[in-house]
Design brief:
With 230 residues, the protein is of the alpha+beta class. The protein has eleven helices and five strands. A five-stranded mixed β-sheet has the order 3-4-2-1-5. Helix 8 packs antiparallel against helix 9. The chain is globular. It starts with a helix and ends with a helix. The mean pLDDT is 96.
Length: 230
Amino acid sequence: MITPEAEALVRDHTVYSCVMGSRAFGLATVGSDTDRRGVFLAPTPLFWRLDKPPTHVDGPSEEQFSWELERFCELALRANPNVLECLHSPIVERIDATGRELVDLRGAFLSKLAHQSFAGYALGQRRKLDADVRQYGAPRWKHAMHLLRLMTSSLDLLRTGRLTIDVGDAREDLLAVKRGEVPWAEVERRMTRLAEENEAAATTTPLRPAPDRARVEDFLLRTRRASASA
């Protein structure tokens, strides 16, 4: 259960919040959940206590999750797929000056590390799907759809240096996978092809070797100082 202090951090100190999941990916259907993700800036004086503020908060609404700004930046510097995609959501619900500066830093977080993180995440999800097929005779089709989406998004990022999360014209093909209308053998073939294309794209990607850590740290220091003097 969320504590009153944690709820207050999300309510009063959110700098950026957006909608993620199927609605942000262009894959929403009737009955789709609304997944909300956000970033809050814990006031600097809270870090002077023995009990530090939380690095993340689950809630207070259903399907809502928020990170403290520093934790969010740490994960983004590691090219965490969920965090990077959060910064590129086309559905922004709340943003202030700090949030706008964070969004302006999107390019600083992108690097070749994304290949490792996206590929690693995809491999883990593929193993889970294979386990489902062995145990139940079929995968969880919704998860298969989202894995294809992620691998396609990763490929586009590696090729262009830009992260786009809306599936665009691929919507109907992906929803057919979700409905179980595409044979598993064909889905496997698509996943294998995308994995190979991702590997090839990683060798020629325009992405920088590492994220711009200094630029991100400068942003964090200025933000913490401003909060301390507020």
